[in-house]
Each structure stands twice: as structure tokens, then as C-alpha cells.
Amino acid sequence: MEKHVVINLSNRHLHISQEDLEILFGAGHQLKNIKHLMQPGQYACEETVTLVGQKGSIENVRILGPVRQQTQVEVLQSDVYKLGKIQPPLRESGGLAGSAPFELIGPAGRIKKSEGMIIAMRHIHMDPASAERFGCKDKQIVKLRAGSPGREAVLENVVIRVSPSYALECHIDFDEGNAVGIGNGTQGEIMK
Questions:
Q1: Cα(41)–Cα(32) distance, rounded to whole angstroms?
Q2: CB atoms within 10 A of CB 173
Q3: What is the pLDDT of residue 1?
């Protein structure tokens, strides 16, 4: 049974609805792909925005495409200190009900939403064939051993996400990667 998976680090970013994109960048605006990501159909966009908090702001927050039904902002735990007085919940992507409010500024306008900001849970994308090879199922919670020599750690509460549209890849955020001394492309071991 397979145990090792490639780990890539996720920085703060957002997924955006077409409506919000047009408010921030102008009527009819379309996202500009600058880099394909490992997950099929996903890409980093040229467009960035400013995320506004009560205490401070974070500039150049990258948009990931394609557009979605609802705008979702994913931040790092360390971002919360700069933004101030907000605690986004730890959630799976798309779990936005009751999440934290946010405000974004773009070159053509600004939006303020009552929910949609989260800290993303650690997760492993798997296509069905990979899930079978690893002996995993959708929504299963596993552990992940990762780290550079001397900084190895076992990360708990890693959710498996299975879909035919996924490629095999683990996502943890930059805070977590820094804590265990790893970068993009590191191998991790799935533990059950």
C-alpha cells in the first residue's frame, strides 16, 4: 500500500465569484492565468487585491482561478495578527457558512462580505485510483509525517478529499510548512 505523497505549500489567496471580480476589476473582467497549478483546471492569476482588516491590511493577495459561485478568502493563522480582531474558522474549502467577514480592495472598487474567510484545513487531494492505492476514502482523517531532518513532525487532522477531478497532492499552508522546515515538492508519509 502506498504511503508517500507530494506536499505543496499554500499561501494566503482567494477564489472569487464573477460578480465580485467585476466589482473589484471592472465590468466584463476575465481572470488572467499566469501559472497552472497541480490540480487540474486550477491556476494562479495575475490579479491581486488588498485584504483589509480592523488593525492592518495585506496587499497583493493572489486570486486563484477559475471563478467560483462564492468568493472565498483563505488566510494563514499568522495573518490574523496583522489583520486584527478576527478569527477565521479552520474549515475545508467551500465550508463558508458562519465563517469570518472580510473586505477586499481592487483597482476598480471594493467589496465587504459578512462571511467567506477561513483558514484552510490540511488536506490531501486524491483521484479515486489513488485513494484505492492508499486505502483511503473521501472525508477520512489521517496523519501526515513530514519535515526536514531535526524538524520532523506528525501533523494530525489531515482530511482526505477524493474526486475524479483531483490529482494526488497534499496541501498544508506556509505556517505549517515553515514549522517543520519544508518547501514545495517535499514528500510526506500518510499514517492512519
A1: 13
A2: 22
A3: 80
